[in-house]
Amino acid sequence: MTNAPTKKHRVTVVGSGNWGSAISKIVAENTKAHPELFHPEVKMWVYEEEYQLSPNHPAYDPAKHSQPEKLSTIINTLHENVKYLPSIPLPENVIATPNIRTAAEDATILIFNVPHQFVFNICNQLDGSCLPYARAVSCIKGVDVTPDGVSLFSDTIGKRLGIYCGALSGANIANEVAAEKFSETTVAYNPPIGPTKDYPNGLVEVPADLPAVDHAFLKSLFHRPYFHVRVVSDVAGVSLGGALKNIVAIAAGFVDGLGWGNNAKAAVMRVGLLEMRKFGKMFFADSCKSATFTEESCGVADLITSCNGGRNHKCAKLSVQKGKPIEEIEAEELNGQKLQGTSTASEVNEYLKRRGLEAEFPLFTAVHLILKGEAKVENLPDLIETL
Amino acid sequence: MTNAPTKKHRVTVVGSGNWGSAISKIVAENTKAHPELFHPEVKMWVYEEEYQLSPNHPAYDPAKHSQPEKLSTIINTLHENVKYLPSIPLPENVIATPNIRTAAEDATILIFNVPHQFVFNICNQLDGSCLPYARAVSCIKGVDVTPDGVSLFSDTIGKRLGIYCGALSGANIANEVAAEKFSETTVAYNPPIGPTKDYPNGLVEVPADLPAVDHAFLKSLFHRPYFHVRVVSDVAGVSLGGALKNIVAIAAGFVDGLGWGNNAKAAVMRVGLLEMRKFGKMFFADSCKSATFTEESCGVADLITSCNGGRNHKCAKLSVQKGKPIEEIEAEELNGQKLQGTSTASEVNEYLKRRGLEAEFPLFTAVHLILKGEAKVENLPDLIETL
C-alpha cells in the first residue's frame, strides 16, 4: 500500500506579460480548487518596473497613487496586472514577486511564460536556485531554428536548469483566455526514465511525499471549465506547432489579400498543416506524433486561430492589398513589435536548404520566396501543385 | 506487352446547377487537355425549363431572345448557364442535353451532381440506359442518415444502376471554383474486386480497349491548375465529411453569435473534426480512414470553409444574435432553401440515440439539444467537457 503524499506542490509562474498573467490566473484558480495537491499561493515573477496608475482606474486613490509605484506592489494591492493584463481581476493567491530567485527557489512546479528572447538570460539568473526535483512547463511559443538544428525552448530550459521541462501550447489568444472565453490547450509532458543524453545522471525524482507529477496532475493544474486541457507526450510536436503555424498564417494572409476566397484559404491551411506535420516527423522522428498536429489544440486549432486573425495573417494580407513589402507593413502596424512568421519562414528555409529538402516543403518554400520577392503571390497554386 | 487502348472515354455530367455546371466546365477543360484519354465532348444533362434571357445580358439580341427559350438551347448557343452559373463562360465542348437517357447512354464516365432529393428519381429514369461497364463519381454532398443506418449517395447510385460509383467532395464553394479561384478537392474511388454483397456478380470490367479507370485517370479528369485533386480510396469518409461538417458549422455559428472569439471557434472545430472521424470509424470501420478527415480537402479543409461562411454557420450565428429559433432565421434568410445542418444534426442524433451512443459524441449531441431548445448555447463548453 502506498502512503498518501503528505506534502503539496508549490507553483511559480516565471513571467507576467499578458499570457503569463492569464496563466497565473488559471493556475491560481486551480491551486485553490485542488488543495489536496497544491499550496494555494502562486508566485508570479514580475520584471520590476515603475508604473503610474491612471487616475481613470477605478481603484485610483490620489492619497496612494499620485506617484509611480512598483508594478509588483500594484499587482499585490489591486490584484490586477494593470500594465499587461488590465481590467482582469487576478485571484488574491497570485503573489507578484520581483526577485526571480526568490520566486523560484521553493517551487516544485515552474511555469515559464516569457518572451522567447529572454529565455537564456532568465535561465542564467535562475541557475542553481531551483529545487533539483522541480518540474517545469514552458508556455513559450515557438522553437529556435538555426541552420544546424531545431531546438525547443522546453529543452533549452530543462538542460540549462537540470530539471525536466514540458510544454503548453494551443489556440490561446491571451486576452480571450483571461476573459474566460472558452478555449482549449495542449500540455505535453514526457520526462525520461533513466539516464539520457540530456540527463546523463537521470532526472532527480519527485519525492514520494509529494503528489506524483503525471498527466492527470497537469490536467488538475491547468484545466478550467473555460480552458479545456488535453495532456499528451509529444513535447516536440506541441512546440513546433506554435512556431510553424506562423508560416502558414502568412500564406493564408496572402490568399486573403488577393481576395481568393474561402476555398483557397482552406486549401493553403490544409497543405500547411501537412507540411508542419511532415517537418515534425522528419526532424523529430523519435518523438513527434502525427496526431499532435492534426488532432490537438496546439496543431490544427492553433493554425485555424492564427489564420483567422493574428498579426502574421494581418500583415501578410495588408502587404498584398497595399502592394508593399511586409517589413513596411510590420513597421506601420506593429508599433515596434516583430512578426514571428517572417523570421521563422526564413530560418526554416535555411535549415531545409542546407539539407536539400526545399522541394519537400513547397508551401514553406513558397512563403519564403514570396517574402524575399523571388516568387509571386499569384503563383502560389503552381508553387504548391503536386502532379 | 499490353496494347495501348484504342478507344476513349465519353464523359457525361448528370446535373447542371451551379456546382454541376462548374464541374462540367472543369471536366470539359480536361477532356480537351487529355485527348489520349477522352472524347472532347462532355454531355451535361439539363433539367429542361423555359428561360427568358435578360435584355441586360451582353449577348441579348431582340431578334433572337425576345421570347423565353429552352435553357439547353441557350446554354448550347451562348456557352453559359445563364440561370444557374451566370457570367461564367463554359467550354464549347460542354453540350447541354435535356434527355437524361440520351445524355447517359454512351457515357463510360458518369458524374452525378444533382440536389440529393432528386437522386432516387434520376436513378429510376436512368435505369437500364447506362453502359454496364460505366464508372460513376458522385459529387452530391451528404449522406442519407436514418435511424436504421447511414447510406452514401454513391452506394445508392451504384447499386441502383448496377455500376460502381465513387465520390468527390472538398472545400468547394461552387462560384469560387467556377471563377477559377484556387481550390482543392478529394476524389474517392475504390471499386471492389470480385463478387461482393453489393455486386454479387462482380463489376463488369472496363473493356481493355479503353484507358483504365484508376486514381491517375481520375486525377486527369478533375485536376486543373486552379483545382487541385487528391485521389483516395475512402468513399465513406469523403461522403461523410460533407454531411457531418454541417453540424460543426452550426456549433461554430453559435460560438460566433455569442462573440466568444477565435479560441472558442477553433476549439469547437477541433472537437467537431474528431467527432466526424469517430463517427466514420465507428460506423464504416472497414473503409473509413482517419486521414480522410484530418488530412484531406473533404475533411479538415471543407470544415474550415464551412465554419468561415456558408449558410449553416450564418443562420446559427444570426439565431444566437437575434435570439430567434434557427427555423425563423432559415425562413428569413434562405429564400425557401433548407439548412442541411439542422436535419443532419437531428438524423445523426436519432441514429446515435438508438445505439446509446449520444455521450460518445458530445458536440453532435449538444448541437442537437441546443437546436431543440433543450440546452443553452452558453453551456456548450460544459456539454463538451471531458474530464
TrEMBL record, chains A, B:
Keyword vocabulary terms for this entry: NAD, Oxidoreductase
SUPFAM superfamilies on file: 6-phosphogluconate dehydrogenase C-terminal domain-like (SSF48179), NAD(P)-binding Rossmann-fold domains (SSF51735)
PROSITE patterns: NAD_G3PDH (PS00957)
One Gene Ontology MF term: glycerol-3-phosphate dehydrogenase (NAD+) activity
UniProt key word RNA-binding: no
EC top class named in words: oxidoreductase
This protein's record includes keyword Oxidoreductase: yes
Domain Glycerol-3-phosphate dehydrogenase NAD-dependent N-terminal: 11-190
Domain Glycerol-3-phosphate dehydrogenase NAD-dependent C-terminal: 234-380
Name of protein: Glycerol-3-phosphate dehydrogenase [NAD(+)]
The species this protein was found in: Discina gigas
Organism ancestry: Eukaryota, Fungi, Dikarya, Ascomycota, Pezizomycotina
